Amino acid sequence: MHISKASSADAPQLFAVWEASVRATHDFLDEAQLQRLAPLVRELMSSYAPIYCLRDDSGAPFAFLGVSNNEIDMLFVAPARRGQGAGRVLAEYAIATLGANKVGVNEQNGQAVGFYERLGFRTVSRSPLDGQGEPLPILHMELA
């Protein structure tokens, strides 16, 4: 799997990957919460750079990663591509190449918590609210 930087032309597909991934993994979010998040995510993704992605044979992104200040800010994989190593490839790139050693994960997203634990992250603190002030606890994890 080859990692490349996303371009502004990739924005619609990156958002589609985000939405499909969240719908598949964030069953603790109701539709209203998802609809409130969508414009915030679109705005963030329009200004966030660089975003690194994995592409399918047609060149369309199917997984992507964003890192800032040594923290994995975003890592999403299209549901059809989950379990095939894309998340691991991007996370290992974030750690080895981009210096990532922290991540914030929704506490209710047990799959993501387990994924990061398998990569060597450990929970160091917990916030009772997410970044939008919703009662969706965030686990702050760091590489052990």
Molecular structure report:
This protein has helices spanning 11-25, 31-47, 86-96, 110-118, and strands at residues 3-5, 51-55, 61-68, 71-77, 102-106, 121-127, 138-143. The chain has 144 residues and is an alpha+beta fold. A 7-stranded mixed beta sheet has the order 1-2-3-4-5-7-6.
Q: Which tags fit this structure?
A:
alpha+beta, about 140 residues, seven-stranded mixed sheet, single chain, globular
Major sheet: arrangement of strands:
1-2-3-4-5-7-6
- What is Rg? 14 Å
Q: Give me the number of helical elements.
A: 4
Q: Please count the beta strands (DSSP E, at least 2 residues each).
A: 7
Overall helicity = 25-40%
Q: What kind of sheet is the major sheet?
A: 7 strands, mixed
Low-confidence stretches: none
Report the β-strand fraction as a percent range.
25-35%
Name the structural class: alpha+beta
Secondary-structure element pattern, one letter each: EHHEEEHEHEE
> What is the average per-residue confidence, as pLDDT, rounded to a whole number?
93
Separation of termini? 27 Å
Q: Could you say which overall geometry the principal axes of the C-alpha atoms support? A: globular
